[in-house]
Amino acid sequence: MIAFFKKVMKKICIEYLYKKYVLDNIIIQQDIEQTIAVRGCHVVPKTIKRKFNHLMFYYPEYAFIFFWRVRSTKWMRHRFTKDFHCKIFESTLVDGGLMCYHPFASVINAKSIGKNFEFRNGLTIGNKSNDNRKLPTIGNDVVVGANVVIIGDITIGDNVIIGAGSVVVKDVPSNTIIAGNPAKIIQSQENG
Fold it and tell me: Nearest CA to 151 among 130, 172, 131, 126?
């Protein structure tokens, strides 16, 4: 009986959240579409409402991103997310399509991050010498592996893949794959 009640309460909360935050917010809708696409979810019918419902029920990592976007409803957050110990600074501007796998132990403090940013656990994006004027700028369609460090006043271009465990302290051109400590270009992508 308690499980049934919790499920009904979740459905009511999701309906409320959808109407209040998703229905007219293109950025959140882009997050939903990107997460569904990257994770390969098969949702029927293929409406944004049904996709949101699916992600909120089965993907606490998505719920974490959603609640960061809306920056409120703390009383509801515990119903949908786990304690990820992840921090995305409110001053960081993040375009639509934000998607994460296991956001444990991640800290994200950047000037801006473009659309379709995907990251994994242990990510550190931050300033250099404790100076918030020296923050990274990250382009569109960037995929970041686990345990990556990106620091300083650097620019990462569009269509970049950053391998797990990399330390990025210099600018990265678009359409590249980088890895290592310090990170180096290991492959250029012809059709980025």
Answer: 126
